[in-house]
Amino acid sequence: MKITVASGKGGTGKTTIAVNLALSVKNSMLIDCDVEGPNSHLFFREPMVKIKDVSIPAPKFDLDTCTLCGKCAEFCQYNAISIIGEKLLFFEELCHGCGGCKIICPVDAITEVDHNVGLIEKGGTEDLPVYHGLLNISEPFGVPIINELKQFADASKITIFDSPPGTACPAVETMRDVDFCILVTEPTPFGLHDLTLTVDVIRQIGTPFGVVVNRDGIGDDRVDQYCEKEGIPLLAKIPNDMEVAKLYSRGVPMVTGLPKYRKLFEEMFQKIREMV
Amino acid sequence: MMVKELTIISGKGGCGKTTIASSFAALAKDHVIADADVDAADMHILLQPEIRKSEVFHGLNIAQKNDDLCINCGKCYENCRYGAFDPDNTLHPEKCEGCAVCELVCPVDAIKMVERQAGEAFISDTRFGPLVHAKLHAGEEASGKLVALVRQRAREVAEKEGKELILIDGPPGTGCTVIAAMTGVNLVLVVFEPTLSGIHDAKRIIEVAKHFQIPAIALINKYDINTENTRDILDYCKGEGIDVVGKIPYDDTATQAMLSEKTVVEYTDGPLALTIREIWDRVEKAL
Ligand code: SF4
Ligand code: SF4
Ligand code: SF4
Ligand code: SF4
What we know:
The complex is a heterodimer of chains A (about 280) and B (about 290).
Chain A: E1 2-6, H1 14-24, E2 28-32, E3 49-61, H2 71-75, E4 81-84, E5 87-90, H3 100-104, E6 110-124, E7 129-135, H4 143-150, E8 158-162, H5 169-175, E9 180-185, H6 189-205, E10 209-216, H7 222-230, E11 234-239, H8 242-250, H9 254-257, H10 262-275
Parallel strand pairs in A: 1-8, 1-9, 2-7, 2-8, 9-10, 10-11
Antiparallel strand pairs in A: 3-6, 4-5, 6-7
Helix pairs in contact in A: 1-10, 4-5
Chain B: E1 4-9, H1 17-27, E2 31-35, H2 43-47, E3 50-57, E4 62-65, H3 75-79, H4 101-105, E5 111-114, E6 119-126, E7 129-136, H5 144-160, E8 165-169, H6 176-182, E9 187-192, H7 196-211, E10 216-221, H8 227-240, E11 243-248, H9 253-259, H10 264-267, H11 271-286
Parallel strand pairs in B: 1-8, 1-9, 2-7, 2-8, 9-10, 10-11
Antiparallel strand pairs in B: 3-6, 4-5, 6-7
Helix pairs in contact in B: 1-11, 5-6
One iron/sulfur cluster binds near residues 101 and 102 of chain B.
């Protein structure tokens, strides 16, 4: 079974839910897809070890053969190539590795080389493996790493994906092709606003979903009311507990530091089980 | 006169970045506010803008296939590197990255790249001055281009209305939206939260700032939830030569203000508001 933990806004507790859920169900694995800021591994003692580089194919120009015809520059949808005077300029960081310039070049002046954009690391334990990806600093696009990360899902395990925040393309990619999606929010105006956006998206995708309210008690009941009106199952409410916040700041999962919370996550999983 | 730009950013969401940015928006004078968190724009909830002008953001084109012309040669499937075609050449537009390779290789012109609406950008009025904001449509590529458009419009407004400063509320992460929100600004204010995650992500942002040679200062929000981590942040910033312009204690007032849809400095004159005011004075000086 594949479960994605998502939220329309960062910092609502997505990682907290993903990590503690993974720790509370048997035979699970955790894949952190927030490649611009992976945090799940901070809650495990085991070090993360690199298992793979991720690269995209980028063009390499043979300037002796190139006739400066400008066709590649004209074609590239991402403005990664430009011809200025007698010079061809390539902006590697804008290249998406689509391969179009190579196809269009009339004199075969373009070959492809690997351009490293990030890496994938593995940690956790035998019982609970943890994977994450890391986008290199100054690289703009994380999607190729997310796509590779998703390949590590093991069909015999309960795979929990920690999604990137928001509702843009990388986040939506992690909500597709999974059995269930947990939307994490806070009982505040920001929380509700971002939740409604995420609900719109997930309804279009069609993945079954439910809501977890984190830091229950800091706000009001506007999220409850919304869920009731929309017929969205409320999976759990995590109380706003200073102890939890302190544990979090030290990288200690709440179910480890305060075992009383384990039941909450077991019940959450039970509810999900019944729905898929 | 040169318009100055300040970007407030944190790497990780939920550090209180928008709380701080919105209070600065209330305190600053002669400024334009730009919400560069185009994927989860929240500033408007506190600022209740009245939209003056809106425009469609097109983003990249998208492939459209005409099945009547298609001869099922398989070239599009073979050449699309983003998995937007099934082996039977069915196109899934939602996976299209707009590269136009399929249009290039199709021998019978069955594929056309067409414009799409990727989002909207707005120029609005608020009680604190003009706000430029945007909304990326769900599922669109997290767009540095839309952030760039927001910044460009903000600059135009600033120049036209003689404003001195653009306050930019930055997006989370380190990718294209963040790079677009940071490049070329005068100063970046990095909001730290003394949690391992908050530190991890804020350090990555400082790496980005260093890479693009943008001056950075820092502040620590909710510093008292882990004083040991706060000390580590102070040491780290010292080592990096980054000025820490303030420490804000954990305070429920921030949430209370948000619930009443006000900025902290409007909602209260209490200690939290006072601290934020002091920090703003220091940020202004650093600019
Ligand atoms: S591979 Fe594609 S994105 Fe990269 S430079 Fe060539 S045409 Fe542009
Ligand atoms: S298409 Fe080929 S020949 Fe023309 S400018 Fe590009 S690399 Fe040079
Ligand atoms: S435009 Fe590029 S990404 Fe989109 S379907 Fe065609 S080949 Fe694939
Ligand atoms: S390349 Fe053109 S003709 Fe060939 S399968 Fe694709 S759409 Fe059909």
